[in-house]
């Protein structure tokens, strides 16, 4: 209640004009103040999450914020969160670039597509691989990723200053090394990639064959034939790498190691029922809608990742 009698008289007149009681007026002020405090807490928490996940989108932010909101008894829907992010200039804008890393015009043997009609229902059934490009301080880096198609976990990676095949071989060796440490070895495993020279070279093919891994490759140059690998490239670059600068390869490798850990262990995936790749992979979980066969139906809602000329269904990630 205000101590100034003139203010009190003015407030009474205002409430009469508005057709509300003073109690309702004060209650409105309290609710507005409480909402302002809650929004401030949410914005603070978003900034905390964005310290490591600098370009994480609103849907995934909402998933990570839910425990915090429950703890503080804050009720806020996803649309309200998007509005709050917009008012505080926290929405993420897409970045675009166009770089080609695939050289498929070569004489080496190319293999058929083995996953065209596959239904992926377990980890280590299909690995997808691709190479992407990252520019930092006018220096070019090339990154090879190997991802488990079921859990979306990055199981092998390598960053280098060249596109030499030996760097992709090192990423594959990391993936194979991790596979050998798992107690439940796969019944059969397919390695799927584009027809780039790195994947067709003698050293890469031999490493796959020595570990009884079947070889599968895209056939028509359609990005959807390797959509998961292409999408992982976009996530790592657009949500993480593009917000950093490094001075040398040593720094780049240390940064990539930390980012892969964040991606695998903290970033929720819509295609995994908002679970993390590491959790799905290690516990053999089976979220609904885990695998989509991109050959059977074209996506309705799309995002063009021009880094790798890829069109993917946003609802899957």
UniProtKB/TrEMBL annotation:
Database matches in InterPro entries: Integrase_cat-core, RNaseH-like_sf, RNaseH_sf, Transpos_IS3, Transposase_IS3/IS150/IS904
Classification via Pfam families: rve_3 (PF13683)
GO terms classed as biological process: DNA integration
GO molecular function: nucleic acid binding
Occurrences of domain Integrase catalytic (ranges): 108-285
Source domain of life: Bacteria
PANTHER family attached to this UniProt entry: INTEGRASE PROTEIN, TRANSPOSASE INSF FOR INSERTION SEQUENCE IS3B-RELATED
Protein name per the record: Integrase catalytic domain-containing protein
Species of the source: Roseivirga ehrenbergii (strain DSM 102268 / JCM 13514 / KCTC 12282 / NCIMB 14502 / KMM 6017)
